[in-house]
Design brief:
alpha/beta
């Protein structure tokens, strides 16, 4: 068993695609219309294009909004992405105007930081020593 797909709920799929590709460096994998306005829109790491996909899922269900907003209110990231160097990635992303809710923090062998994805989610980046 392995992870094939996970998702983040987003307010605006086009804005999410721009953020996740232009700021975070993911690449678009699938973009298929679903219904009148929604899309099956996934991104992947350019380092593993056949690896796990992240679905930029429209925030249509009321329970999803409640869940996502409660996580943000409590400062809890919805997802975690691995990076080679949290401090370097933090500086790079801040240079592009990305807002962080937690600066790099060393927690034993792990360093983390938390960013606002501009689409309603907090995302943690992490490096393990």
């Amino acid at each position: 068993m392995k992870i094939h797909l996970t998702s983040v709920f987003v307010d605006d799929q086009a804005a999410a695609l721009r953020f996740y590709t232009e700021m975070l460096g993911f690449v678009k994998k699938h973009d298929v219309p679903v219904g009148e306005t929604d899309r099956w829109l996934t991104v992947v790491s350019p380092e593993d294009p056949d690896g796990p996909e992240l679905l930029l899922e429209p925030l249509g269900h009321p329970a999803a909004r409640t869940y996502r907003d409660a996580l943000v209110a409590d400062g809890i990231p919805l997802a975690q992405f691995a990076v080679d160097d949290v401090k370097a990635e933090y500086e790079r992303l801040r240079g592009h105007g990305v807002r962080f809710t937690q600066e790099p923090l060393e927690k034993g062998p792990v360093t983390t930081a938390v960013l606002d994805d501009t689409c309603g989610n907090l995302i943690q980046i992490a490096t393990q020593a």
